[in-house]
Amino acid sequence: MPRNPLHRHIARCAAGALTLLLCACVTETIGPHQPVKPDLKEAARINTQLGLAYAGQGRYEVAATKLKKAIEQDDSLAQAHAGLGYVYWQQNDSEDAGNEYRRAISLDGEDPDIRNNYGVFLCSQGKYADGDSNFMQVLKHRDYPTPAKAWTNAGICARQAGDGARAEGDLRKALQVDPNFAGALAEMASFDYQKKNYLGARAYLERYQKVAPPGANLLLLGFKTERALGNEDAAQQYSVKLIRNYPDSDEAAQLLKLRAPSPS
Questions:
Q1: What is the average pLDDT score of the chain?
Q2: What is the CATH number of the domain that holds 222?
Q3: How far is the C-alpha of 188 from the C-alpha of 190, rounded, in Å?
């Protein structure tokens, strides 16, 4: 599920790395003519952080270069393989992405972040049961800091699989764990709109906007929700924000079609 909001973990996990890490090879010296062999494990760690930071910026080519270098320096670094899997996935190379994710899991199957991201990848490939299995393994880690993320991913995966009841249940569990988890609030707003529960969709959209700025998709959803409720003033407010903030988006184009007068 590329562009899934939960992918933003990749961008966050290495925030600041580009400004803090200025080189990708660590060499110590003892005296002026006694260089010590480079610390390849440390260099691999740095290259992994850099690669993840570039991936978070959408600079996939340079990210791949850094992550491949990290793997050359230390092939046992699970995070480097997982990061490269994500990069391949964003480049529409599902086969290599799967290979790298499986390599990462074989190296550190207990890393909940790797499991979570692998689950999202599997669901994007239509392997819903396998994806869900990974999310459930993540949730076994009682010290995992963001269980709401795994529950939300499980809900999204179930919804894609056509299991609406399971999807809604998982999303509600996410909000029980964290009532302000933006990803779950957005999904529930969409879910309620789809069920024509427009008041419910409005409530979730209002809750979402208290914790995060809405993107183009939610602004369009807000417009359609308020129009369905007959509140043209609120619909117009969503319309203005969408056109002003995301004028070139697909959602803005859809909005203009929705606003166009019907042919007489």
A1: 88
A2: 1.25.40
A3: 5
